[in-house]
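Q: What would this chain look like folded?
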Amino acid sequence: MVQTQYQRFSAVYVPISEIFKYEYKKGVAQFDPNYLDAGCMQISRVSLTGVVIDNKTENGSPAITIDDKSSTIEVREFVDPSKQEGPVLLNGLNIGNLITVIGKIKEFGGQRYVQAEIVKKTTADWLKFSQTKARITELNLKIKNKGKNFVQTQQQPAQQTQSQQQQQNQTQNDTEEEQIMDAPLDKIVNKAEIICKIIDEEDKGSGVLIKDIIEKSNMDDCEKIINDLLENGDIFMVQPGKVKVLN
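A: My prediction, written as structure tokens:
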């Protein structure tokens, strides 16, 4: 008997919003997993970190909803009705918990969700790390897909073969990707994340003065961004003129 080789896709760090951008396709061969067609990449499994904002049970199977600030998505755990064991992965999670989820992207009835494979509680530091990794993936996809579209839409010079042009564009994309991967963190994340990082680093327990944040950030629009973070609930004011990051 010939044993079919099953290919296990690596889990990809992505913002939740990216999961809804691409076409969901079925695997070609019998044991191929379904995936998101992200142009230069097929995404079947993802690694997400976010806050639990809802939990419920439907037909004996538990489900939670997580939010990573880019969007929200439901995470489900399949429970075999023929077995008496209860839920394992999503058991004991409460609204407000910070968690990391690794799982497969699924779609049913037009709704996309993640089928949980690994779920564990995590920390605010890991949330920041995973969001940075997800942001890098998002930027890399944009760069690579931009290069791919360029190859497909531009006319090739008469003296240059299509293969040579593709190789040249791939080299250019790889160089741009390396520049992103090697860039300092403050060149990758947005201004709001930089300000949150400053607050987190300067906070000795009682919060950080807004005037000190403005001075350290050296941003003209720092005060406006702080006000936006306060309105969004990302930071909170412990006393007049002093703020903390919401951990």
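The longest strand covers residues 45-58.
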